[in-house]
Structures are given as structure tokens and as C-alpha cells.
Amino acid sequence: MTEFGGHGIGRKMHMDPHVPHVGVAGTGARLRAGMAFTIEPMINLGSPAVRVLEDRWTVVTEDGSLSAQFEHTVLVTREGCEVLTRLP
Q1: I need a surface site. Which of 25, 33, 39, 40 has the fewest CB within 10 A?
Q2: Which of 5, 75, 72 is nearest to 35 (CA)?
Q3: How many whole angstroms separate alpha carbon 63 and alpha carbon 45?
Q4: Which residues make beta-bridge pairs with 19?
Q5: Alpha carbons 71 and 42: distance in angstroms, whole number
Q6: Which residues contact 31 (CB under 8 A, 6 or more apart)?
Q7: How far is the CA of 38 from the CAs of 48, 62, 67, 70, 72, in angstroms?
Q8: pTM of the entire structure?
Q9: Which position has the higher pLDDT, 77 or 48?
Q10: Residues whose CB falls within 8 Å of the CB of residue 65, separated by 6 or more in sequence, listed in order
Q11: Is 56 helix (H, G, I), strand (E, B) or coil?
Q12: Mean pLDDT across the stretch 41-62?
């Protein structure tokens, strides 16, 4: 599933950079301290093919298989990273 991914968080909800679900290690934007973004994996039991319903918000799998999506917000720090949405 390559059409969706995470995104930057800043003064607006959905900002650059786009954070794809797939990629090649060592490519893409270089992470720097102070960057905040979401990680939004989608896990499908069947095919990765999806479609968006008429409401332009709901996403379903093409083959009708079960799917789940969740989101965490991550802050890049000088020491590594902090998951801001982690439960205590």
C-alpha cells in the first residue's frame, strides 16, 4: 500500500514530509532534531490494494479482507526519538 503514509506535524495537522509506508533504507529525508511526524501503518490480511469510498474518507480493502490502521506521533530528539502518543 503505497498511496498512504504518515506526515509532518507542525502549525497545521498534515504537513511535509510525507512518510511512506514502504521505502529503501538510507533514502528519503534526513531526520533532524525537532522534527515531528506521524507513523501510520496500515495492515491488511489480504491484498494491499485499497479504495476510498464516496465519503472521500473511508478506506476499504479491494478484496474485502480485514484491515487495521493506527497512528503514533514521533518527535526526533538529539538523543534519538520520543513517541509522543505512547500510553503510560
Answers
A1: 25
A2: 75
A3: 10
A4: 6
A5: 9
A6: 76
A7: 20, 25, 19, 10, 6
A8: 0.75
A9: 77
A10: 44, 45, 46, 47
A11: coil
A12: 92
